[in-house]
Q: What sequence folds into this?
């Protein structure tokens, strides 16, 4: 394997990083494009019909010179090319249903649009796939984030869905922060890893960043008969010689 992935080749199963969709290429979506390219995903489909505007540069990872690129999907394509090799490809689309630049969703989806109704629309379309794998919904406020994960076998999506008009609006100058954006993207990418590596994950996570508070939903344990991750640990289901339950009994320490 290319030494590019030397530091995580026994954690992230490269053979499973085939096709994934990102719906929404703004703040969250831009960092997802960067992260998925760096992980090694072969085909990333990006959907967005909006333009890049000046106020986007405080919460996206698009460089400032992207201001000359009008469409977000074009900016995302350029960003992906900066972090990928010749075996990887980004497919930019305006719409996932109808429209001039149209493509159907894939079985693996991350949604990060601006309102709850469009998120539900993505979910309803994804749910029509018989062989659907996972949908991850990344939601963000100024200093709090929320992640909802559903699969074909574990789907409680509508339990946390609320209409946009019921979410208290934040002032225009207090809507987003780059650290909240990066935090939810980090959670989202790690959730992608949990799913493709077939290890345990929480189907719901809410986090406040000011102060730091975390609330969890249900812990979903993997099917251990499905061997995906190149596990170097003994009887380990997260590849780190521990367990994937993140309990208070066993921790994976950092240094």
A:
């Amino acid at each position: 394997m290319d030494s590019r992935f030397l530091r995580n080749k026994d954690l992230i199963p490269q053979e499973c990083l085939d096709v994934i969709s990102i719906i929404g290429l703004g703040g969250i979506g831009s960092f997802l494009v960067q992260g998925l390219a760096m992980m090694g995903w072969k085909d990333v489909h990006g959907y967005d019909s909006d333009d890049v505007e000046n106020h986007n540069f405080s919460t996206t990872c698009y460089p400032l010179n992207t201001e000359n690129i009008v469409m977000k999907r074009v900016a995302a394509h350029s960003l992906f090319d900066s972090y990928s090799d010749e075996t990887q490809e980004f497919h930019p689309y305006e719409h996932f249903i109808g429209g001039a630049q149209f493509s159907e969703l894939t079985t693996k989806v991350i949604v990060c649009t601006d309102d709850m109704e469009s998120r539900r629309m993505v979910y309803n379309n994804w749910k029509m796939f018989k062989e659907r794998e996972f949908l991850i919904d990344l939601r963000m406020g100024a200093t709090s984030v929320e992640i909802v994960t559903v699969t074909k076998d574990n789907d409680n999506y509508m339990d946390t869905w609320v209409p946009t008009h019921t979410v208290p609006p934040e002032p225009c100058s207090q809507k987003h922060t780059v650290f909240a954006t990066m935090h939810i993207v980090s959670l989202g990418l790690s959730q992608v890893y949990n799913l493709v590596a077939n290890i345990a994950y929480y189907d719901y996570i809410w986090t406040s960043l000011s102060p730091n508070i975390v609330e969890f939903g249900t812990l979903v344990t993997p099917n251990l008969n499905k061997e995906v991750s190149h596990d170097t640990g003994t009887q380990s289901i997260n590849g780190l010689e521990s367990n994937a339950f993140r309990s208070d009994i066993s921790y994976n320490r950092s240094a």
Residues 15-220 form a domain with the Rossmann fold fold (CATH 3.40.50.720). The CA atoms of residues 24 and 112 lie 5 Å apart. Strands lie at 19-23, 43-47, 89-93, 108-111, 134-140, 144-151, 201-202, 204-209, 212-216, 219-220. The radius of gyration is 18 Å.
